[in-house]
Amino acid sequence: MGTGQEQVKRELLLDGLDCANCALKIENGVKKIKGITDCSVNFVTKTLSMHTTSDMDEQVVEEAKRKVLRLEPHIRISEKGKPSIGNHASAEAVSRLNGHRHAQAGTETEADGQDHDHAGHSHDHEHHHGTHYHGVQDHAHDPGKHEGHTHSHSHGHEHDAHAGHSHEHGSGQTKVLLARLAAGSALVAAAIWSPLEGWAQLALYVVAYLIAGGDIVLQAFKNIIRGQVFDEYFLMSVATIGAFAIGEYPEGVAVMLFYQLGELFQGMAVNRSRKSIESLMDIRPDYANILTGSGDETKRVSPEEVRIGDRIVVRAGEKVPLDGIVKAGRSMVDTSALTGESVPRELEPGSDVLSGFVNKNGMLTIEVTKTFDESTVSKILDLVQNASSRKAKTEHFISKFARYYTPVVVILAALIAFVPPLVLSGATFADWIYRALVFLVISCPCALVVSIPLGFFGGIGAASRNGILVKGSNYLEALNDVKVVVFDKTGTLTKGVFKVTAIRPEGGRTEDELMELAAMAEAQSNHPIAESIRAAWAKDIRTQGVEDYDEVAGHGIRVSVDGREVLAGNAKMMDQAGILYTKPETVGTVIHVAEAGVYAGHLIISDEVKEDAAAAIQALKKLGIRKTVMLTGDAKAVGEAVGRELGVDEVYAELLPQHKVERLEQLEAAKSPKEKMVFVGDGINDTPVLARADVGVAMGGLGSDAAIEAADVVIMTDEPSRLASAIRIAKRTRRIVWQNIGFALGVKAIFLLLGVFGIATMWEAVFSDVGVTVLAVLNAMRVLRVKNI
Q1: In this model, does residue 154 exceed pLDDT 80?
Q2: What's the domain count of the chain?
Q3: Is 737 within a domain?
């Protein structure tokens, strides 16, 4: 970005965008606007994401909106709860996106009945968290809103039926399109088999053509006026009008009929993918039952209205709407939508509970600890939806390829039409123009621009179903090239649940005296080791006379008790203070305690290795990972013992947070430039390392917020073995994406050659365009079916 100015991310929702070529056109157009440093359009989620410089933010966004409407006038644009803008949107008070409106709670109104007059309803949830899109979904309270929805596409809008050729069909518009196809087919049949000849027969063909493809020709004409020449509308219009010009009337109409039919099937296939993605969005809660002042009655409210400290009730079968702590009740909860875990989790008073869990049996009273914007479910929805803004190199390649491919093909078609008749004896213009028209129909790059982003989006969706959140398709693609995996130890390969396993007092002290000293020193620390010491003491900790608390990073705690300095920390702290201490032989974390410069003894604290940690290391090696490394701030003996148990290749122990970054940079320098390195950490001290690695992986939905923010991949289940699953999903996604690239380009290349040599007709041309696109989209949808890989 390199401007030195603050970057602002803005997102526009493009309602009515369902054409991959249109998305590509908008992306390329908006990228050229001065002040926009980065831009990405995802046609699956209908979202335009862009980064602007802060000083030009508003004017740049307005210019982007104008550019979108110049390129695709039928699109309605909305942003962050503001009213839609576009040809038909002036009366609308909120953005309606694919049938599910997330209006800002209590502050926005709906223009009643407007939504059903515009683009068709495809069930595709958009959640933009932190942008006031968190209102209660209308369908939760008004089921009648969604009657008659169809998962297919429409061409245009009812008010302006020919203005746009989006691929989205509302239920009424699908019937209109099918009626047009039926009427067009009947007229063509009548023209072919009726006794009519001459002008009467031509009139039937022309009427059939206008019914079947008038909207496409009109859109091509409007695009040419706006300077947008090379798109699918232009290709289809030139090819079919050219067929009429050389007297191939039946084929000219048939190409339009089959093109429209193919677009309908393609739209239905894309919407099936949308429906699969939508199932991931079902974790979004519709309401919360908040306890009122009396404490017995509940009131149903939007999750956004609940504040920290409020108490909510979750009954059997309901989703937990917000993160919190169970205050009353016991129940089993289904966490599969959130973490991918199939085994229900048992909750009791004091248990942490995350939004998105489904209560299976009992009734729970929960004290809310996070607002909806900060809740786990909100963050997951945000990550999944915004993942599409970070594109993989393959997607960027396809974008550039399509930009140059279509104009080149149009120039080649012109050469095919006019050069051979001039240089070859016996060649006729009619024959070679027909071949050029076939060439044009075949050339449309729809299959690539539709199926490639859909494949990556499906991969991100499949990972989410397995409890793995990937923040962008660029990270999904990067996982394919991972050869070095670096793990933090505590909380990543081990449970991070410490227990005091030995108490060894010295200098005439009792175990209780040593434990109390350690507990007083660790009273204010939130480190897991400190928590284990407090848990082992299990009595009230004296606070009177305890002051001057100082936590020394990587060493331990220094505190004053009744005026005497107490140290509780590792061997480095004792060395620094010049205190002689005992070095135990037992493997475990050792906390040395000293009072007033005199050694008081030590505690041994052990951490348990996760059940699937060893299996995770083995699975990674089977996937071709060249080197596994473990970094830990723990003692060398402890780190090496855990490393041996798990089969890790290299162990580096006794590292402070800054040393972990240095070690990571050394590993980075030792690998080849093409190889990628992953760092996996639970995040308490891992944020700098997560940000430094090629791909940073944060463990656990209950982990540190800062780590989840810094990481590129978040594993919700706390299971290290899910990293292998993520890599397998990445490899499967890339395989399917490249299958589509090879299939689409291969079929097109064959048919282009057949067209040039006069073997392929318009019928084959339509298959190579629309048929290949539908097959590529169906293949891309296979990625979504990955479950428990």
Answers
A1: no
A2: 4
A3: no
